[in-house]
Amino acid sequence: MLSKSLSFVFCVFALAAFSPAQTKISGTMRCGRADTEQQVDVGDNPGHTISINQTTCTWTKPLVIEGIHDTEGVSSQISEIQGSSFASHGYFVDTMANGDKVFLRYEATVTLAAGEMQDVQGKWTYTGGTGKFKGIQGDGTFSGTPGGRGATYDLEGEYTLPK
Fold first, then answer.
1. Residue 151 in this model has a pLDDT that exceeds 70
2. How many folded domains does the chain comprise?
3. What per-residue confidence (pLDDT) applies to 1?
4. What tens digit of pLDDT does each residue of 8-21 get?
5. What is the CATH number of the domain that holds 127?
6. Is 15 helix (H, G, I), strand (E, B) or coil?
7. Residue 78 belongs to what domain range?
8. Rounded distance, CA 145 to CA 114, Å?
9. What does the pLDDT look like over 19-61, one tens digit per residue?
10. Nearest to residue 147, comparing CAs of 28, 26, 27, 53?
11. Is residue 138 part of a domain?
């Protein structure tokens, strides 16, 4: 029995040695008002709408992946707004300094007051990339703070790249 337990422990450690280590990342980006937006009323309750929009964002504190930082990105999202909150999900195409792209999917919950964003909380996941970032995996969280004509988002998470 002890032999089987030791074999199992050895296998776990052996697999861990061959598994790529996750690298922590964090950054801050600024997104302005939507470049393109379409909103429709659902019609069942006042203030119940669905919108789709696309927004350009720039990094004020870039994420750095394998020594390469990101420069800007484009967010495309769908939101359902009801009263004082809304839920959204979307995709973010992040352009890296070397021209490669990294792709993320995200989900967020937004609190509103008088129709304006007050707080944003969400989760993101890498869905792929090009060039040096092909096969990237990882995930993390983000929070947003409105200000001026847009919002600032702080992201943190982890990633791995295939060897």
1. yes
2. 1
3. 46
4. 333 433 333 344 57
5. 2.40.350
6. helix
7. 25-150
8. 16
9. 457 999 999 999 999 999 999 999 999 889 999 999 999 999 9
10. 28
11. yes
